[in-house]
Specification:
- The protein is 48% helix and 12% strand.
- It is an alpha/beta fold and 211 residues long.
- The chain folds into two domains: 3-131 and 197-210, Rossmann fold (3-Layer(aba) Sandwich), CATH 3.40.50; 135-194, Winged helix-like DNA-binding domain superfamily/Winged helix DNA-binding domain (Arc Repressor Mutant, subunit A, Orthogonal Bundle).
- It has a five-stranded mixed β-sheet with strand order 1-5-2-3-4, with helices on both faces.
- It is elongated, with a radius of gyration of 18 Å.
- InterPro entries: Sig_transdc_resp-reg_C-effctor (IPR016032), Tscrpt_reg_LuxR_C (IPR000792), WH-like_DNA-bd_sf (IPR036388).
- One of its GO terms (biological process) is regulation of DNA-templated transcription.
- This is DNA-binding transcriptional activator BglJ.
Length: 211
C-alpha cells in the first residue's frame, strides 16, 4: 500500500482520530522514536521475500526496544500472510490483507488500534492463522539446508535421518506454510537463513501512529 493509500485510509471516519506518520526507510522511523511516542507501527509489505525479512527484523527490534508499541503488518496476499505469521520471531498484534475491501481494512485497523496495545494471545487478530501448525525444529533445519543448496540426500546425511523421513518433514513444512513448490518453500527458507542480517534498504512505506 502506498503512502497515498495509507493517508486516504486514515482520513476516513473510523481512523481520523489517529495521527499518521509515514516513513520510507527503517532508519528514519527508528530515529523518530527518540522524540515521538507511538502507539502502533503499521508495516505495509510488497510480495518481495527480501522485504519480508526486513519486516521481521524491524518488528523484532521494535519488540525488544519498545515493547508497548503495537505491531501490525499489511500483507499482500494469503501466502505472504502465512509466511509472516509462521516465521515472525515476535508476536504480532495484527496481520491484515491489503486485498480486503477498503471498508474491511478500515474496520480491522480500527478494531486493532482500539485494543489498548494488548497482544492478542488467542490469535483471533482478524487473520485466522493456526499457530499450532508452526514449523518444528527439524522442518526449520531442512529449510535452512535447502536455502544453502543442499539436496535431500545431503540433508538426510547431515541430520542423520533417512531420505523418506526428510521428504516427509519437507512435505509437512509445505503444508504448514501454504506453499506448493520448492520455489515457495525457498522463500521461507531464505527468511530463516538470512533473518539475523538487518537490511535497511526497504523501499516501501510503513506508518506509525499516536492518538
Amino acid at each position: 500500500m502506498s503512502a497515498v493509500g495509507l493517508e486516504h485510509l486514515f482520513a476516513r471516519p473510523l481512523l481520523n482520530t489517529f495521527t499518521l506518520h509515514l516513513f520510507k526507510d527503517i532508519k528514519s522511523f527508528q530515529a523518530s522514536l527518540n522524540s515521538v511516542s507511538y502507539s502502533s507501527l503499521i508495516y505495509s509489505l510488497s510480495d518481495e521475500r527480501e522485504e519480508r525479512r526486513n519486516c521481521l527484523v524491524c518488528i523484532k527490534e521494535l519488540a525488544m526496544s519498545h515493547g508497548t508499541v503495537q505491531r501490525i503488518v499489511l500483507a499482500s496476499d494469503t501466502k505472504e500472510a502465512s509466511l509472516i505469521e509462521q516465521l515472525s520471531p515476535s508476536r504480532l498484534h495484527g496481520l491484515i490483507l491489503k486485498s480486503d475491501s477498503l471498508t474491511t481494512l478500515q474496520e480491522h485497523l480500527s478494531r486493532l488500534l482500539n485494543e489498548n496495545r494488548r497482544v492478542n494471545d488467542s490469535m483471533s487478530n482478524h487473520w485466522n492463522i493456526h499457530r499450532g501448525r508452526l514449523l518444528s525444529p527439524t522442518e526449520r533445519a531442512i529449510l535452512q539446508f535447502m536455502s544453502c543448496g543442499f539436496s535431500i540426500p545431503e540433508i538426510a546425511t547431515r541430520l542423520d535421518r533417512n531420505i523418506k523421513t526428510i521428504r516427509a518433514h519437507k512435505f509437512n513444512a509445505m503444508v504448514k506454510l501454504g506453499v506448493r513448490s520448492d520455489v515457495g518453500l525457498l522463500d521461507a527458507a531464505d527468511i530463516l537463513t538470512h533473518f539475523p542480517v538487518p537490511d535497511h534498504r526497504m523501499p516501501r512505506f510503513f506508518g506509525a501512529l499516536h492518538s
